[in-house]
Structure formats: C-alpha cells, structure tokens
Design brief:
Number of domains: 2
CATH topology of the largest domain: Four Helix Bundle (Hemerythrin (Met), subunit A)
Helix content: 40-55%
Strand content: under 5%
Order of helices and strands: HHHHHH
Oligomer: single chain
Radius of gyration: 20 Å
Length: 181
Amino acid sequence: MAPGPVGQSTEQKDDAQTEAVPKKLAKGVVLGPDGKPCRTCTDISSLFAVSKSATSSKSTLPPKPPADCPPDIVALGRSSWTLLHSITATYPTAPSPELQSETKTFIHTFSKLYPCWHCASDFQMWLKEDRNTPRVSSRAEFGQWMCEAHNAVNVKLGKKEFDCNRWEERWKTGWKDGRCD
C-alpha cells in the first residue's frame, strides 16, 4: 500500500498477521509505506489515539513514554532543529569554499536520511526551489537561512514563526536579558 497523507482514512482487511487500521485515523497520524501508522512520523499522542480508538472509545491522556523509547516526530523534530541551529551557530564567519560545498552536501544528505519519510520528502521538495538553496557563505547567512527553513516548517505546522533577526541570540550568544548566563 502506498504511503498516505496525514489523517488519511483507510480500510485494511484483517488477517492473522495484520491488525486492522481504523477507518478514520486520528489527526496527525502519518501512514508508512506498509499502510500502518509510521511511528517516526507521528507524535506519540496521535499514536495513542489510534490504539485507543482500535480498542475502546474511552478517552484518556496518553502516557508519556520512557525516555529510552524511540523518538516520536515531536522529539525527533526538536532534537534535529537543535542540532542544525547549533551547527549554524558554530559555523565559521568566513568558511572556506570547500567547507561551503561540504555544508551544502550535508544539508541535502540530511534531507535524504531524515528518519521521518514524510518530513524528509517535504524538506527535499522545499530545497529544490531556487530561493531555498542553502546559503552558506558566512555564519550570519547560514543562520538566517536555517531560521527561514525552520519557519517554513513552523508555518506548515501552524506554529508561530521565529524572528530570524534573533537567531544568533537564541542559538549562539544567549538572550540579551542574561537568563542564559
């Protein structure tokens, strides 16, 4: 079965080795190539909603999984953005042409290796637009580009955009009010 979009309705026949997928999936559930909810592409509360709807109609808050469980999409995204922004914060102010080339390669490779196939595909498509080519000629330019990339995702998720004029304060120097000192 081909991957489905977020929240897609689907029917799947029961057999001895396959659990039935509910006809109406919870909001935020992304189906994997096998037609089942993708653990990496779906947040834990949406997965919990799927399992509860398959077993009962009782509504309870999802349990917080132990810290040593595989990350859901929320934990994976938060960790990935932390890594990417931290890389931009320590990027040289005047990188060599070789490092600039390697950095562009890293971004494109990252987009192909990202564990959530849905997010990876979306980021690859975003990168293909000329205006979204990684800008890596300086730390300031790379940090601004990364903030714009992050904001593009925030917009798609209905989240508030970050003021990209403050990316360095957030990821390198710390807030001017001193709370990071």
